[in-house]
Design brief:
This protein is α+β, with helices and mostly antiparallel strands. It has one domain. It contains three helices and eight strands. Strands 1, 2, 3, 4, 5 and 6 form a six-stranded mixed beta sheet that branches. The chain is globular and about 50 Å long.
């Protein structure tokens, strides 16, 4: 999801995965918090509408019918068309000042010290964390977190997703049932 500070106009010819334009609807809720020439990138979790999850078995204990935004990137567009990202600490400050949820940071450190395999196939909310770290609880006790995202800050951040093999098995089952995930239907 991304949105800017302007009325979000839904394109009637746009092919939406859901029956409603979820991103435009939710973007309207936050547009007043976004400064001019700023783009906010985020992930929506929860529900498209009543009894319609955004992603099957992964509603993250969001009440039925609601969805929540978690911001992972904020960029500023300059008058000459340049696009410049806030560093991660800036993204967290941007969210805190506006009452927005920021994606949960589980670890920070040098890239060389990060081993993706040590961060997949877990239920992060069930593990002990240092004070202030609160992973989002999963709604289904039999699932694991989708995986992790690794971010490296540069002028434009590099963002890589390492998905859990158990989660990939869940996605495969959904595909076998001909339930297409919007992320894989690109």
């Amino acid at each position: 999801m991304l949105f800017r500070r302007k009325k979000v106009e839904s394109n009637p010819n746009q092919n939406h995965y859901y029956e409603t334009d979820l991103w435009s609807r939710e973007g309207e809720k936050y547009a007043h918090l976004v400064p001019k020439n700023t783009i906010v990138y985020g992930e929506l979790i929860g529900w498209v509408g009543e009894n319609s999850p955004i992603q099957g078995n992964y509603t993250y204990n969001v009440p039925n019918g609601d969805c929540h935004l978690y911001v992972y990137r904020v960029a500023v567009v300059t008058a000459d068309g340049g696009l410049y990202d806030l560093p991660w600490e800036g993204v967290k400050q941007f969210c805190a000042e506006r009452g927005l949820n920021c994606v949960v940071e589980l670890w920070s450190g040098r890239h060389a010290n990060f081993v993706p395999e040590e961060w997949i196939d877990f239920r992060f909310a069930d593990l002990k964390w240092e004070e202030g770290v609160h992973p989002i609880p999963l709604s289904d006790k039999k699932t694991v977190d989708e995986g992790v995202v690794v971010r490296w800050d540069g002028l434009v951040p590099t963002v890589l997703k390492a998905k859990s093999p158990i989660f990939l098995g869940h996605e495969s089952k959904m595909l076998d049932q001909e339930i297409v995930d919007i992320e894989s239907d690109v």
